[in-house]
Write a structure and sequence with these properties.
The protein has two domains: 134 residues, Aspartate Aminotransferase, domain 1 (Alpha-Beta Complex), CATH 3.90.1150.10; 233 residues, Type I PLP-dependent aspartate aminotransferase-like (Major domain) (Aspartate Aminotransferase, domain 2, 3-Layer(aba) Sandwich), CATH 3.40.640.10. It contains 13 helices and 13 strands. Bound molecules: pyridoxal-5'-phosphate.
């Protein structure tokens, strides 16, 4: 049975070979320390879990949800956007609840990207921008390289003429944080280029370990759309819940696509997100969320320091956000293969795009003790 051409057009999955090797080693009983995975190991923030359990008993929480999301939940999201960023968002027109941000980032592109159009995104970047955003829609892809020379900040002029522009700060995989002047520059770009929809992926917005807290792009322009997610913010990647906020036309387009492709996030999970966001005290998350962010920050500092002494690591690029450490090496794939033989899983940078070649990403989603042990293994020749 022939597959659709767009499936053939997807790049071969670089990680598949590495995963096969990891599985084989695990089956042989090798203890692998996984610094590859972007999945929090710390427990869910309590209020999300407790709220979920409570709302499971709501008699009206078991039917098809609406694709745009429960209005009361959208109001809670608007309340959070106001408290956290000081922006007024209309819950009726400017918010759509999503099943995690990956779904929204991908579904939104279907409303805009098509053959003959270009999707631009930062490179290295979250692979969904190029694969779901461009390739699955038959659109062209334009990479905006992030390099040490540009402090991992893109040259926005490269995005001119694009139908969509995906940006992501704090950034996966480089860890880079954008300062306010960058948000202003992006807002000016969005206002000057109505033919380009600017999408800010703010999945790591709350995982920032030093002041100032990252802002929202919506503070600077209403001509954009921003995605937030509870996944990393509250250690609930499996719950699949987040939201999009911003330009009403883009929200309406996302909802139109979603009505054909999904039936919204389960109501009890939406309500759990609403309560978790309402548990913020101004700009500050609930205490256990804050503690888990602090723990990621401590682990990241440990890993940044320790990686500097690992043979083959040329430079570590420290940053105050995300749970990723980005470092340059000679050959990223060879380095990662060698690390796996020593019992440590890392991610080769080229898995995030061409500009990622020659870099590795290490995630701090395992305990400090295991990170110490991983560093020891990597240091041993
Ligand atoms: C940059 C970035 N955006 C979005 C996502 C998707 O997160 P979720 O769909 O869990 O909200 C991820 C997940 O790793 C990510 O790294």
């Amino acid at each position: 049975m022939p597959l659709a051409q767009r499936v053939h057009n997807l790049p071969s999955y670089l990680f598949a070979g590495l995963e096969a090797k990891a599985t084989e080693l695990k089956q042989r009983g090798v203890d692998l320390i996984d610094l590859g995975i972007a999945d929090p190991d710390l427990p869910p923030v309590d209020i999300v879990k407790q709220s979920l359990i409570r709302h499971l008993d709501d008699p009206d929480a078991h039917q098809y949800p609406s694709s745009v999301g429960d209005l009361a939940v959208r109001k809670a999201v608007a309340g959070w956007m106001q408290a956290r960023f000081g922006v007024a968002i209309d819950p009726a027109m400017e918010i759509c609840i999503t099943s995690g941000s990956k779904e929204g980032l991908a579904n939104l592109s279907r409303a805009y990207a098509e053959p003959g159009t270009v999707v631009a995104a930062t490179d290295p970047g979250y692979p969904v921008y190029a694969n779901a955003g461009a390739i699955l829609n038959g659109a062209g892809f334009r990479a905006l390289p992030l390099t040490p020379d540009n402090q991992f900040m893109p040259d926005l002029t490269l995005a001119e003429g694009a139908r969509l522009l995906y940006l992501n700060y704090p950034n996966n995989p480089t860890g880079a944080v954008a300062d306010e002047s960058f948000y202003r520059e992006v807002a000016a770009f969005a206002d000057a280029h109505p033919e380009t929809l600017v999408i800010m992926d703010a999945a790591y917005c709350e995982l920032s370990f030093l002041p100032p807290k990252p802002p929202s792009l919506l503070q600077f322009s209403k001509n954009v759309i921003e995605f937030h997610s509870l996944s990393k913010m509250m250690n609930v990647t499996g719950y699949r819940i987040g939201f999009a906020a911003g330009q009403p036309e883009a929200i309406a387009a996302l909802v139109k696509i979603k009505t054909q492709l999904d039936s919204g996030a389960p109501v009890f999970i939406q309500r759990a997100m609403a309560e978790a966001l309402a548990a913020y005290d101004g700009v500050n998350p609930p205490a256990d969320a804050q503690e888990s962010h602090n723990e990621y920050g401590r682990r990241k500092a440990l890993l940044e320091k320790g990686l500097k002494d690992v043979p083959g690591v040329k430079q570590v690029y420290p940053s105050p956000a995300t749970f990723f450490v980005w470092a340059s090496v000679d050959d990223d794939v060879a380095f990662v293969e060698h690390a796996m033989e020593k019992g440590v899983i890392l991610t080769p940078g080229r898995g995030f795009g061409e500009a990622g070649e020659g870099f590795i990403r290490a995630a701090v989603t395992t305990s400090a003790d295991r990170i110490e042990l991983a560093l020891q293994r990597l240091r041993d020749e």
